[in-house]
């Protein structure tokens, strides 16, 4: 990252800030959902691998929140922990609970849903990062290039799980097929740039939504051919558009847990 923040054109800064909140909040919430699998993953090797991926993803969110701090939007810790659900810009798909129960009380999480959500999101994230490396805001382009290195391994991991489970017989394939439809029903929320998308594109911050969507579909399609499944289009926003501040009770629950310690001692150095 640049040693000194590069100030963006004032007329385009609102779009830049909106984009950064989308990027940060997406990774922040999905990293949290991933962390809830600690001790619950199918086997110990996956427990370690998934924990590492979630830690990386939380680190990516931190880098985006730091860019927002550099732009004068508040401290990175405050932006991550103190903002209400209505101010969050993450896609609704990423806030949704892993399944019934609670990670401390009879969790009955859905591994198929988790694998599909992680794989779809990681492909979309890879496409988005490729675009962001050409962003007109240099600090964002630098962060995107750094994240790309780690994401390569995340994608290999989730592609392996996606293919192996979907190609498995009987219950595994049935559950994966159901999970694909479930994820697809909210996946448009990951792909949208929200109300300020046109401004983001106009200022050269990121490619237009149509291009990102087409590239994500192109990235996902080979895996569907590999497992012999029909394409799950169209994507939707069944549970709301998080880019517009529309969220589910799952987000309230997640934020209450995530911010519990921070709110108890808000002036501590984290």
How does this model look, in words?
The chain is mainly alpha-helical. It has a single domain (10-264), classed as Ferritin (Up-down Bundle). It is 65% helix and 0% strand. The chain has 11 helices and no strands. It has helices at residues 10-35, 44-70, 76-81, 92-95, 111-132, 138-167, 171-191, 197-202, 209-227, 249-258, 260-264. Helix 2 (44-70) packs antiparallel against helix 6 (138-167) and helix 6 (138-167) runs antiparallel to helix 7 (171-191). It is globular, with a radius of gyration of 18 Å. The model has no long low-confidence stretch (mean pLDDT 94).
Task: Describe the structure using short key phrases.
single chain, Ferritin-like_SF, about 0% strand, Phenylacetate-CoA oxygenase, PaaI subunit, about 65% helix, 11 helices, mainly alpha, about 270 residues, PaaC, Ferritin, Ferritin-like
CATH topology assignment: Ferritin
C-alpha Rg, in Å? 18 Å
- The count of strands amounts to 0
Distance between the termini: 20 Å
Pfam family, one: PaaA_PaaC
Organism: Geobacillus proteiniphilus
GO biological process, one term: phenylacetate catabolic process
Protein name: Phenylacetate-CoA oxygenase, PaaI subunit
């Amino acid at each position: 990252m640049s040693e000194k923040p590069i100030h963006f054109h004032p007329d385009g800064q609102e779009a830049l800030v909106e984009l950064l909140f989308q990027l940060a909040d997406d990774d922040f919430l999905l990293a949290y959902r991933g962390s809830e699998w600690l001790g619950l993953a199918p086997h110990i090797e996956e427990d370690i691998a998934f924990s590492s991926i979630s830690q990386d993803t939380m680190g990516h969110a931190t880098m985006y929140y730091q860019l927002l701090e550099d732009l004068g939007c508040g401290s990175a810790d405050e932006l991550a922990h103190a903002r209400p659900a209505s101010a969050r810009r993450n896609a609704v798909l990423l806030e949704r609970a892993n399944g019934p129960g609670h990670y401390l009380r009879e969790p009955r999480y859905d591994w198929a849903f988790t694998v599909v959500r992680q794989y779809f999101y990681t492909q979309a994230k890879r496409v988005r990062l490729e675009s962001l490396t050409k962003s007109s805001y240099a600090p964002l382009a630098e962060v995107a290039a750094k994240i790309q290195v780690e994401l390569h391994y995340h994608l290999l991991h989730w592609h392996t799980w996606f293919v192996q489970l979907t190609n498995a017989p009987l219950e595994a394939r049935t559950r994966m097929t159901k999970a694909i439809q479930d994820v697809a029903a909210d996946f448009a929320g990951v792909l949208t740039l929200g109300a300020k998308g046109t401004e983001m594109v106009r200022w050269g911050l990121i490619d237009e939504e149509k291009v990102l969507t087409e590239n994500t579909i192109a990235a996902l399609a080979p895996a569907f051919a590999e497992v012999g499944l029909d394409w799950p289009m169209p994507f939707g926003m069944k549970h709301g558009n998080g880019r517009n501040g529309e969220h589910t009770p799952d987000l309230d629950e997640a934020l209450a847990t995530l911010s519990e310690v921070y709110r108890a001692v808000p002036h501590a150095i984290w």
